[in-house]
Design goal:
The protein is of the alpha/beta class. The chain contains 5 helices and 8 strands. Helix 1 runs parallel beside helix 5. The radius of gyration is 16 Å and the shape is globular.
Length: about 180
């Protein structure tokens, strides 16, 4: 049995969404909050795989998500095992962001139903999670530099996946910011 506690009403979660973002045992509430806001603004469901490295009570997550949590579709999974059972039952492909990947994110072909997984800020993901991933991607960095902040990396990956899958909302929803160049 999968044990999932939703932060929003059950109708707000869409397991068949064309793209999802998952956080594996996040360490830093501010990064989780930034990624929650990203998902809320872009209409992506989010999966939070516990335990978190901070008090992940609904109250604290609502504070981290500021006033955007009402627009979010998060699901809380009590462990990676529960998440894996849930994911496999729905045939989602797991795409892991990792510094140990051989494929650049912009060379990867995203597909509807993909779940983008971000690891812990302090340690990434353990080997068994790495091995469970269907694909492993890295964001190319300059030589000698190790990694990006997890929220920045998540934004880059989400943007590329949404671009490929044509998932961005129409510009009219952003207040008419589509201004032509002079």
């Amino acid at each position: 049995m999968v044990d999932i506690r939703s932060l929003c009403p059950p109708s707000a979660s869409d397991p068949q969404a064309p793209l999802r973002l998952a956080l594996y045992e996040p360490d830093i509430p501010q990064n989780a909050g930034t990624l929650m806001r990203l998902c809320a603004c872009l209409g992506l469901p989010m999966d939070l795989i516990e335990p978190a490295g901070f008090d992940a009570s609904d109250r604290n997550l609502r504070r981290a998500g500021l006033d955007y949590l009402h627009a979010l579709r998060p699901e809380r999974h009590l462990s990676f095992g529960h998440f894996e059972e849930w994911r496999r039952a729905r045939a989602h492909r797991l795409v892991l962001a990792t510094t140990r990947a051989d494929v650049a994110h912009h060379h990867f072909r995203f597909s509807p139903g993909d779940i983008l997984l971000l690891g812990r800020e302090s340690a990434g993901v353990p080997d068994h999670v790495h091995e469970a991933a269907d694909a492993r991607l890295a964001i190319p960095l300059r030589p000698g530099l190790r990694s990006l902040n997890v929220a920045v990396a998540g934004g880059i990956l989400v943007a590329e996946a949404m671009r490929q899958l044509d998932l961005f909302p129409p510009m009219a929803t952003t207040g008419g910011l589509d201004v032509p160049s002079p």
